[in-house]
TrEMBL record:
This is D-2-hydroxyacid dehydrogenase. Pfam families: 2-Hacid_dh (PF00389), 2-Hacid_dh_C (PF02826). One of its GO terms (molecular function) is oxidoreductase activity, acting on the CH-OH group of donors, NAD or NADP as acceptor. CDD domains: 2-Hacid_dh_4. Belongs to the D-isomer specific 2-hydroxyacid dehydrogenase family. Residues 107-285 form the D-isomer specific 2-hydroxyacid dehydrogenase NAD-binding domain. SUPFAM superfamilies: Formate/glycerate dehydrogenase catalytic domain-like, NAD(P)-binding Rossmann-fold domains. PROSITE patterns: D_2_HYDROXYACID_DH_3.
Amino acid sequence: MKIVVLDGYTLNPGDLNWNQIKTLGDIIIYDRTDSADIISRIGDAEVVLTNKTPIRKETMKACPNIKLISVLATGYDVIDIEAAKQLGIAVCNVPAYGTYSVAQFAISLLLEICYHVGYHDNAVKEGRWENSADWCFWDKPLLELYGKTMGIIGYGRIGQTTGRIARALGMKIIANDKHENPTLKDVEYVSFDDLCSRADVIVLHCSLTKENQQFIDKKAIAKMKKNAIIINNARGQLINEKDLADALNEGRIYAAGIDVVSKEPIEKDNPLLKAKNCYITPHMSWGSVEARKRIMDMTYENIQGYLNDKTVNRIV
């Protein structure tokens, strides 16, 4: 069996290995694949592994030997799911691999906004502490989270994990999710509008759908508190970036922590790059070695399950 990995570098830049998956067939691993090369690289492969390289209907038709597409991520919007259904191609993903890493990173962005750790680390190394007239210093506002309200949009595995961490910091948790879980007693489910108006911190942990593209826009932001903080390490397309940048620059909300943007890698004219109090990281919250190892393990299980006629993490 021939297996092709279209964009393996981000999953394994050298600190992991493909040995387990190699036991399942002949594997060809590409670090990255340009759109012009997708069809030729897949060729007659039966199994295709992709993270962010899109596989559309025309690719599936041009490569009729494809039997399984296994996405090296939880989100599978890079795959034309309807086309896969029509053509009888199985599609798998890797759910829950990054629950702890992504939740941890959301809190990390929030704590950076609260204490400006990176800024003050640089200040110390530039000699500002040793030259201080006092035994301590800071020149940016320091914020305490205790007693504040976190509103989480998308209260699945990651949202609940972020909520548990925030609760340990003394925060109250409210959530908005189209699938409310009545067994969860430590969260208050609220409408989207109520969440926007009540939350001191708004965290996006929802999937990207046609309905929620750019739903954090000037209309939603207008409902938020002036001291509100927005955290997004879900999908960049959830936010209207110009509206968010304008709100930050005009002081209509306090800050934002962003690990994802609408087009990646980020473009130099992205308005968030020059926005006040906007902390941007390069889509790294998923990338702990532990999380990436889980992707490797679960991908092996996906392929093995397919070969054994078992349904494992199947989308289609």
